[in-house]
User: Fold this.
Amino acid sequence: VERSVFEGLDRVDPLAPFRDEFDIPDDGPIYLDGNSLGRPPRSAVAAVEAGLREWAIDLVGGWRRWVHLPESVGDRIGELLGARSGQVAVCDSTTVNLYKLASGALAARPGRGVIVGSAGDFPTDRYVLQGIAAASGHRLQLVGSSPSEGVDLDDLCRHINDDTALVCLSHVDYRSGARLDLTEVTEAVHRVGAMVLWDLCHSAGAVPVALDDSGADLAVGCTYKYLNAGPGAPGFLYVRTELQRDVAHPIWGWFGQSDQFAMGREYQRTEGAAGYLTGTPGVLALMAVDAAAGVTARAGIELLWAKSRELTDLLVRLITERLVPLGARLASPADPARRGAHIAVAHRQAWPWCASLVERGQVVGDFRPPDVLRLGPAPLYTRFVDLFDAVEKMAAVLSDGLPDGDFEARVT
Ligand SMILES: Cc1ncc(COP(=O)(O)O)c(C=O)c1O
Assistant:
């Protein structure tokens, strides 16, 4: 494909104006790592600055407003996830939220002995489930996951039965970008009477999830990837309204307490998603989430997803034309209907390849062991022409020849 084709696509891209809401230097590297840490929208920076002024002026009185942010920002994120009000809270980290909801799900399925996860899932998900199983006496069963195609639904179905309490999976695989069908998997899990907990880290802000309509029980995710809320911004959690009575909260903190400021003697969990809060939230970070998610909401998840599919389809085409002849291999599903918003390319020297591109200030992707370079073209601010230029630079580095470094020798 010619570069002019990509320039033409940028000219008709309805989301092109959104790039101007970010400060993007003309001479910087091509950033294809928005699926690890999104860029800062100017509105999020302004929101944090305004928050700092509020703190200075209002001091402790500011809490009258700030105390409601985990819920109100939760509703805003909920809109992007197809969730009605009162089911999403923004709080803690994805890891902590996963722990809270997985523990709560087990309490809602007494007498069942097995937790099912994916062997290929992001480490924190596996570790949290291992820890819960070790403490509670449940057995953790990890379903196999193909490095490029992810978890197979039929295989999952063979691993679940009336002893399964909880199935915990990522909607979009962090490495390959393989995407599961939220509704199909949820239905399969419900057929055996278990609960499903989704990790939406690689979906939120780029891939539609329609949480309510899919029938999903529980979900968690982060706001610092496609939602652009900044490093260490809080995660979110979703608990379907009908389940909130039965899904217990393992951490009894005062922010989950009804009538919090009455300082009552006994813990009584408050209604709605706020019942899954723990302690004092990071207010400045919540302000950034609110503003950044607002940019995504204005762009609209349907347009973002349409552009994302175009970007990833073209990226796969460029990889096939330019990089496969140089020894690279697609490590994402070949079927576009099974892909999320990022693409993985495998190469024997993926580590020095990725590191050279960063060192030369050309392309920022990220390396995932043992041999994958991951490219996440965030649809909100990535131009089509960026893909063409990035793949040209990637091809040039491969053609120049790479040192035989393996990733064990990496510096970071
Ligand atoms: C699938 C998935 N889950 C969880 C996390 C991280 O969780 P936390 O925000 O708690 O560090 C990531 C981070 O990249 C991820 O990709």
Q: What stands out?
A: Residues 93-95, 122, 124-125, 170, 174, 199, 201-202, 222, 235 surround pyridoxal-5'-phosphate (CB under 6 Å).
